Protein backbone atom coordinates (compact mmCIF):
# COMPACT_ATOMS: atom_id res chain seq x y z
CA UNK A 1 0.00 0.00 0.00
CA UNK A 2 1.35 3.42 -1.00
CA UNK A 3 1.51 5.93 1.84
CA UNK A 4 0.88 9.64 1.34
CA UNK A 5 3.40 11.26 3.66
CA UNK A 6 2.62 14.45 5.55
CA UNK A 7 5.77 16.19 4.28
CA UNK A 8 6.57 16.04 0.55
CA UNK A 9 10.18 15.13 -0.36
CA UNK A 10 11.03 18.69 -1.41
CA UNK A 11 10.31 19.89 2.14
CA UNK A 12 12.93 17.61 3.72
CA UNK A 13 16.06 19.54 4.76
CA UNK A 14 19.37 17.69 4.92
CA UNK A 15 21.75 17.85 7.86
CA UNK A 16 19.36 18.19 10.79
CA UNK A 17 20.27 14.77 12.21
CA UNK A 18 22.32 11.71 11.21
CA UNK A 19 20.91 9.44 8.52
CA UNK A 20 20.67 6.48 10.89
CA UNK A 21 17.65 4.21 10.48
CA UNK A 22 14.71 4.51 12.86
CA UNK A 23 11.08 3.39 13.11
CA UNK A 24 8.13 5.76 13.19
CA UNK A 25 4.36 5.48 13.38
CA UNK A 26 2.05 6.49 10.53
CA UNK A 27 0.35 8.78 13.03
CA UNK A 28 3.45 10.95 12.64
CA UNK A 29 4.54 10.28 9.08
CA UNK A 30 1.14 10.13 7.35
CA UNK A 31 -1.25 11.99 9.66
CA UNK A 32 1.18 14.69 10.81
CA UNK A 33 0.90 14.17 14.57
CA UNK A 34 3.87 15.42 16.65
CA UNK A 35 6.16 12.91 18.33
CA UNK A 36 4.67 12.10 21.72
CA UNK A 37 6.92 9.25 22.81
CA UNK A 38 10.41 8.31 21.67
CA UNK A 39 12.73 5.58 22.87
CA UNK A 40 16.04 4.07 21.85
CA UNK A 41 16.45 0.33 22.11
CA UNK A 42 19.43 -1.71 20.99
CA UNK A 43 18.38 -1.48 17.34
CA UNK A 44 17.90 2.30 17.22
CA UNK A 45 15.27 5.00 17.76
CA UNK A 46 11.51 4.49 17.69
CA UNK A 47 8.97 7.32 17.43
CA UNK A 48 5.27 7.23 18.29
CA UNK A 49 2.58 9.87 18.54
CA UNK A 50 1.78 8.44 21.96
CA UNK A 51 -1.91 7.74 21.39
CA UNK A 52 -1.50 4.47 19.47
CA UNK A 53 -2.92 1.36 21.13
CA UNK A 54 -1.04 -1.94 21.22
CA UNK A 55 -2.99 -3.40 18.29
CA UNK A 56 -1.97 -0.42 16.17
CA UNK A 57 1.71 -0.74 17.08
CA UNK A 58 1.70 -4.52 16.56
CA UNK A 59 0.54 -4.09 12.95
CA UNK A 60 3.68 -3.60 10.83
CA UNK A 61 1.61 -1.78 8.21
CA UNK A 62 1.32 1.15 10.64
CA UNK A 63 5.08 1.59 11.05
CA UNK A 64 7.86 2.46 8.65
CA UNK A 65 11.64 2.61 8.48
CA UNK A 66 13.04 6.12 7.97
CA UNK A 67 16.17 8.15 8.63
CA UNK A 68 16.58 10.21 11.79
CA UNK A 69 17.03 13.26 9.59
CA UNK A 70 13.58 12.71 8.10
CA UNK A 71 12.04 12.46 11.59
CA UNK A 72 13.85 15.64 12.63
CA UNK A 73 12.15 17.42 9.73
CA UNK A 74 8.76 16.25 10.96
CA UNK A 75 9.44 17.31 14.55
CA UNK A 76 12.58 19.30 15.32
CA UNK A 77 11.95 18.99 19.06
CA UNK A 78 13.53 15.53 18.97
CA UNK A 79 16.96 16.77 17.86
CA UNK A 80 18.34 17.63 21.31
CA UNK A 81 17.61 14.11 22.61
CA UNK A 82 19.10 11.94 19.88
CA UNK A 83 22.44 11.44 21.67
CA UNK A 84 20.77 9.58 24.55
CA UNK A 85 22.06 6.00 24.92
CA UNK A 86 20.14 2.81 24.17
CA UNK A 87 17.60 2.18 26.92
CA UNK A 88 16.52 5.84 27.13
CA UNK A 89 12.94 6.97 26.57
CA UNK A 90 11.28 10.40 26.50
CA UNK A 91 7.68 11.64 26.83
CA UNK A 92 6.38 14.81 25.22
CA UNK A 93 6.08 17.83 27.49
CA UNK A 94 5.11 21.06 25.74
CA UNK A 95 7.71 21.98 23.14
CA UNK A 96 10.20 19.41 24.43
CA UNK A 97 10.47 16.09 26.21
CA UNK A 98 11.02 14.75 29.72
CA UNK A 99 12.84 11.50 30.39
CA UNK A 100 10.69 8.46 31.09
CA UNK A 101 12.12 6.96 34.31
CA UNK A 102 11.01 3.49 33.20
CA UNK A 103 13.27 3.67 30.15
CA UNK A 104 12.73 1.94 26.83
CA UNK A 105 10.26 -0.95 26.70
CA UNK A 106 11.70 -4.38 27.43
CA UNK A 107 10.41 -7.92 27.13
CA UNK A 108 8.86 -8.73 30.55
CA UNK A 109 9.09 -12.45 29.83
CA UNK A 110 12.81 -12.41 29.09
CA UNK A 111 14.73 -14.50 31.62
CA UNK A 112 18.45 -15.08 31.15
CA UNK A 113 18.99 -16.69 34.56
CA UNK A 114 18.17 -20.15 33.19
CA UNK A 115 21.13 -19.84 30.81
CA UNK A 116 23.73 -18.84 33.39
CA UNK A 117 26.70 -21.07 34.17
CA UNK A 118 25.98 -23.01 37.40
CA UNK A 119 29.72 -23.42 38.05
CA UNK A 120 30.20 -19.70 38.78
CA UNK A 121 28.59 -17.34 41.31
CA UNK A 122 25.45 -15.52 40.19
CA UNK A 123 25.03 -11.83 40.98
CA UNK A 124 22.14 -9.42 40.44
CA UNK A 125 21.20 -5.85 41.35
CA UNK A 126 23.49 -3.51 43.31
CA UNK A 127 27.13 -4.60 43.57
CA UNK A 128 29.99 -2.94 45.46
CA UNK A 129 32.88 -4.01 43.24
CA UNK A 130 35.73 -2.20 45.07
CA UNK A 131 35.96 0.05 48.09
CA UNK A 132 35.62 3.02 45.68
CA UNK A 133 33.07 1.83 43.12
CA UNK A 134 29.62 0.26 42.81
CA UNK A 135 27.23 -0.56 39.98
CA UNK A 136 23.86 -2.18 39.35
CA UNK A 137 23.53 -5.24 37.13
CA UNK A 138 20.48 -4.96 34.83
CA UNK A 139 19.77 -8.69 35.10
CA UNK A 140 21.32 -11.76 36.78
CA UNK A 141 24.87 -12.45 35.59
CA UNK A 142 27.72 -14.79 36.42
CA UNK A 143 30.89 -13.43 38.02
CA UNK A 144 34.54 -14.43 37.76
CA UNK A 145 38.03 -12.97 38.12
CA UNK A 146 40.23 -13.29 35.04
CA UNK A 147 43.65 -11.74 34.31
CA UNK A 148 43.21 -9.33 37.21
CA UNK A 149 39.84 -8.06 35.96
CA UNK A 150 36.37 -8.53 37.39
CA UNK A 151 34.08 -10.08 34.78
CA UNK A 152 30.28 -10.16 34.78
CA UNK A 153 28.67 -12.15 32.00
CA UNK A 154 25.58 -13.84 30.71
CA UNK A 155 24.70 -15.11 27.22
CA UNK A 156 25.01 -12.16 24.84
CA UNK A 157 26.81 -9.77 27.21
CA UNK A 158 30.25 -9.81 28.84
CA UNK A 159 31.56 -6.90 30.92
CA UNK A 160 35.24 -6.59 31.91
CA UNK A 161 36.06 -4.14 34.71
CA UNK A 162 39.46 -2.96 35.93
CA UNK A 163 39.94 -0.50 38.81
CA UNK A 164 43.07 1.59 39.39
CA UNK A 165 44.31 4.04 41.99
CA UNK A 166 45.66 7.52 41.32
CA UNK A 167 49.23 7.21 40.06
CA UNK A 168 49.77 10.30 37.92
CA UNK A 169 46.90 12.76 37.81
CA UNK A 170 45.62 14.93 40.62
CA UNK A 171 42.09 15.58 39.41
CA UNK A 172 39.33 13.63 37.72
CA UNK A 173 39.23 16.19 34.90
CA UNK A 174 42.92 15.64 34.09
CA UNK A 175 42.48 11.90 34.15
CA UNK A 176 39.48 11.94 31.84
CA UNK A 177 41.26 14.33 29.48
CA UNK A 178 44.12 11.84 29.20
CA UNK A 179 41.73 8.97 28.48
CA UNK A 180 40.12 11.09 25.77
CA UNK A 181 43.42 11.34 23.89
CA UNK A 182 43.74 7.54 23.76
CA UNK A 183 40.40 6.88 22.06
CA UNK A 184 40.69 5.47 18.55
CA UNK A 185 39.74 7.87 15.74
CA UNK A 186 37.42 5.10 14.52
CA UNK A 187 35.32 5.29 17.70
CA UNK A 188 31.76 6.62 17.55
CA UNK A 189 28.70 7.19 19.76
CA UNK A 190 30.80 9.27 22.15
CA UNK A 191 29.17 10.38 25.40
CA UNK A 192 30.34 12.13 28.58
CA UNK A 193 28.48 12.63 31.87
CA UNK A 194 28.93 13.04 35.61
CA UNK A 195 27.85 10.54 38.26
CA UNK A 196 28.24 11.76 41.82
CA UNK A 197 31.86 12.87 42.17
CA UNK A 198 32.99 10.93 39.09
CA UNK A 199 33.40 12.00 35.48
CA UNK A 200 32.48 9.36 32.91
CA UNK A 201 32.85 8.78 29.20
CA UNK A 202 31.88 6.06 26.74
CA UNK A 203 32.23 5.20 23.08
CA UNK A 204 31.77 2.29 20.71
CA UNK A 205 34.38 0.72 18.49
CA UNK A 206 34.13 -1.91 15.77
CA UNK A 207 37.01 -4.37 15.94
CA UNK A 208 37.98 -7.44 13.95
CA UNK A 209 36.41 -10.60 15.38
CA UNK A 210 35.82 -14.10 14.10
CA UNK A 211 32.29 -14.09 15.51
CA UNK A 212 29.15 -12.03 14.89
CA UNK A 213 29.35 -9.76 17.93
CA UNK A 214 28.38 -6.10 17.58
CA UNK A 215 30.87 -3.23 18.02
CA UNK A 216 31.99 -3.12 21.64
CA UNK A 217 31.07 -0.47 24.20
CA UNK A 218 33.96 1.03 26.18
CA UNK A 219 33.76 3.34 29.16
CA UNK A 220 35.66 4.90 32.02
CA UNK A 221 34.67 6.53 35.29
CA UNK A 222 37.20 8.69 37.12
CA UNK A 223 37.47 10.50 40.43
CA UNK A 224 40.39 12.32 42.02
CA UNK A 225 41.28 9.08 43.83
CA UNK A 226 40.79 6.28 41.30
CA UNK A 227 39.38 5.23 37.97
CA UNK A 228 37.38 2.33 36.59
CA UNK A 229 37.73 1.02 33.03
CA UNK A 230 34.98 -1.04 31.39
CA UNK A 231 34.84 -3.06 28.18
CA UNK A 232 31.45 -4.52 27.29
CA UNK A 233 30.93 -7.01 24.47
CA UNK A 234 27.45 -7.70 23.10
CA UNK A 235 25.78 -9.99 20.58
CA UNK A 236 22.54 -8.14 19.84
CA UNK A 237 20.74 -4.83 20.11
CA UNK A 238 18.90 -5.84 23.28
CA UNK A 239 22.23 -6.82 24.82
CA UNK A 240 23.57 -3.37 23.94
CA UNK A 241 20.76 -1.70 25.87
CA UNK A 242 21.68 -3.80 28.92
CA UNK A 243 25.35 -2.88 28.45
CA UNK A 244 24.53 0.83 28.50
CA UNK A 245 22.37 0.32 31.59
CA UNK A 246 25.25 -1.36 33.40
CA UNK A 247 27.76 1.29 32.34
CA UNK A 248 25.51 4.20 33.29
CA UNK A 249 24.87 2.67 36.73
CA UNK A 250 28.53 2.99 37.81
CA UNK A 251 28.83 5.28 40.84
CA UNK A 252 31.66 6.22 43.22
CA UNK A 253 31.33 5.29 46.87
TrEMBL record:
It holds the Pfam family Imm33. Residues 22-96 form the Immunity protein Imm33 domain. It comes from the Bacteria. InterPro entries: Imm33_dom (IPR018689). This is Immunity protein Imm33 domain-containing protein. It comes from Mycolicibacterium senegalense. The lineage of its organism: Bacteria, Bacillati, Actinomycetota, Actinomycetes, Mycobacteriales.
Amino acid sequence: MTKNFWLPPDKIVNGLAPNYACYASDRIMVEGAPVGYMYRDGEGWNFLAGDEDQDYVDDPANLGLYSLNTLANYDRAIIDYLDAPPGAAFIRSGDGFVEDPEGAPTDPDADTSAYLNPNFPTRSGYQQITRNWALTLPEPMNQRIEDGSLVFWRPGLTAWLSAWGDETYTTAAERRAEFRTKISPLAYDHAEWASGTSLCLSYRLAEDHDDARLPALYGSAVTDASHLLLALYVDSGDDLASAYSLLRSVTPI
